[in-house]
Amino acid sequence: MLTNIAVEFGFDRGDALDGMNDDNELVITEQLATDAAAQGIRSVPFFVFGEKYALSGAQPAEVFERALAQTIDEL
């Protein structure tokens, strides 16, 4: 059951059940999924830096370092 997985990851069982039964949470989740799809996000993990650069999938630390450095340089 999904609540068991939530508990395994440190969530309170009651809070997990409340979240899963909250229609507002469903609307928020659906909107986030729609927004991600509109941005071309099709997989996880997916990282966005400075609303400009994106990395998809597992990447070496050096790739993250370059993306962060580039983002910081442009601030």
Can you describe what's shown?
The chain folds into 2 domains: 1-40, no CATH class; 43-75, no CATH class. It has helices at residues 2-8, 13-20, 23-38, 61-73, and strands at 46-49, 53-56. The chain is built from 4 helices and 2 strands. With 75 residues, the chain is mostly helical. The model has no long low-confidence stretch (mean pLDDT 93).
Distance between the termini: 45 Å
Parts with pLDDT < 50 across at least 5 consecutive residues: none
Q: Helical residue percent?
A: 55-70%
Question: From the helix content, strand content and strand pairing, which structural class follows?
Answer: mainly alpha
As a whole number of angstroms, the C-alpha radius of gyration is: 17 Å
Into which percentage range does the β-strand content fall? 5-15%
Q: In sequence order, what are the helices and strands, one letter per element?
A: HHHEEH
SS field, number of helical segments: 4
**Sheet with the most strands: spatial strand order:** 1-2
The tally of beta strands, per DSSP, is 2
Largest sheet: 2 strands, antiparallel
Look at the structure and give the mean pLDDT. Answer: 93
Shape: elongated
Could you say how many structural domains there are in total? 2
